[in-house]
Design a protein that fits this description.
Layout: H1 4-22, E1 38-40, E2 55-63, E3 67-68, E4 75-76, E5 79-86, H2 90-104, E6 108-113, E7 120-127
Parallel strand pairs: 1-2
Antiparallel strand pairs: 2-5, 3-4, 6-7
């Protein structure tokens, strides 16, 4: 797949955004009466920005070396994915982080191709193999 990293990143952003919408974080009434959550596709501090409260930032690291996944030529390509949460309060961050972790901890889903509208399902798959949670201060 051409531009795999870009499609992978966009797929994860879409999944996180849809999950947070479905679990009551983005539109009224908001969980715990807090400020609505915004999902962005970059790390604001690396862009020289101060993150707004209740921002969930999804960013992706560099592609790591390909690894043989199965005999016969299937390959696994690994990326580090960062989902940073900048909460209004620590308790909100913990709740948000829990919902995000529940979404991705056992996730096995196809990568979407964003070259056309609507996005199409590709033959590539996403599997999260190591999930760590860290709540950051806004």
């Amino acid at each position: 797949m051409r531009h795999r990293q870009r499609h992978l990143h966009a797929t994860i952003v879409k999944l996180v955004r849809e999950e947070l919408q479905a679990t009551g974080w983005t539109t009224a009434p908001i969980n715990f009466g807090t400020t609505p959550v915004t999902v962005i596709d970059y790390e604001p501090q690396q862009a020289g920005e101060t993150p707004a409260v209740n921002t969930v930032a999804v960013s992706i690291g560099d592609e790591m070396a390909d690894e043989e996944f199965e005999l016969g030529g299937m390959m696994a390509v690994r990326y580090a994915v960062f989902i940073d949460i900048y909460p209004e309060k620590e308790a909100i961050g913990v709740a948000l982080a829990g919902d995000v972790k529940d979404l991705i901890k056992d996730l096995y889903t196809p990568v979407l191709g964003f070259s056309a509208t609507p996005p199409s399902v590709t033959q590539d798959w996403i599997e999260f193999v190591h999930v760590m949670i860290e709540v950051l201060q806004s």
